Amino acid sequence: MSEPEASASAASESGTFEPVEPQVVAPPAEPAPELVAELDAAAAASKSAPSDAAVQERLWRAAFALDRWLFLARGSDDEPTPFALRTDEGAVIFAFSTADRAHAAALEFGLPEDEAARMLAVPLPGAAAWVASYAESGVEAMVFDAPSNGAMAPLANLAAMAVYISQNPA
């Protein structure tokens, strides 16, 4: 997949966007355990009620409550891109809440150990716009915390979710 031409940006509370830069890290600091626990509880509820909008909103609010999302890094450190695979739904980028989850998924995807340890840390809320910019390269969706949680969102929805969540606190 080629890199998108548009610059990635972060939604401010007013709905405007500010540029964000992904940072190659190995391995980053983990989020607070209570944030991961809420994310996992929301993911479990989401699997039980996939068509319940309130349950899905809880899951994505938990994902957006993190300080940053992690992506498996591909390419050079100077011009990194997120790992993507072609699935039945089209090309998909994978994002993760923790380095352990990203590393385990990378190994399951068949990446060698040295590549499985390379990650991009992209701060929120800008991570949503950054990954959404890959739609210009033909990416259809993002899957969060695969395979354990595996929540999927079309890229077209991510930036709008970030703005909605920032403008409508729970």
What does this structure look like?
With 170 residues, this protein is an alpha+beta fold. Helices cover 36% and strands 26% of the residues. It is built from 6 helices and 10 strands, in the order E-E-E-H-H-E-E-E-E-H-H-E-H-E-E-H. It has helices at 33-48, 53-64, 99-108, 113-116, 126-132, 155-167, and strands at residues 9-11, 17-19, 23-25, 68-74, 81-82, 84-87, 90-96, 119-123, 139-144, 151-154. Strands 3, 4, 5, 6, 7, 8, 9 and 10 form an 8-stranded mixed beta sheet that branches. Strand 6 and strand 7 (90-96) form a beta hairpin. Helix 1 runs antiparallel to helix 2 and helix 5 (126-132) runs antiparallel to helix 6 (155-167). It is globular, with a radius of gyration of 15 Å. The termini are far apart.
Characteristic terms for this protein:
170 residues; alpha+beta; 6 helices; 26% strand
N-to-C terminal Cα separation, in Å? 36 Å
Estimated radius of gyration: 15 Å
* Share of helix, binned: 25-40%
Strand portion, in percent?
25-35%
Based on CA inertia axes, which overall geometry fits?
globular
Number of strands: 10
Low-pLDDT ranges: 1-17
Order of helices and strands: EEEHHEEEEHHEHEEH
Q: Tell me the number of helical segments per DSSP (H or I, 4 or more residues long).
A: 6
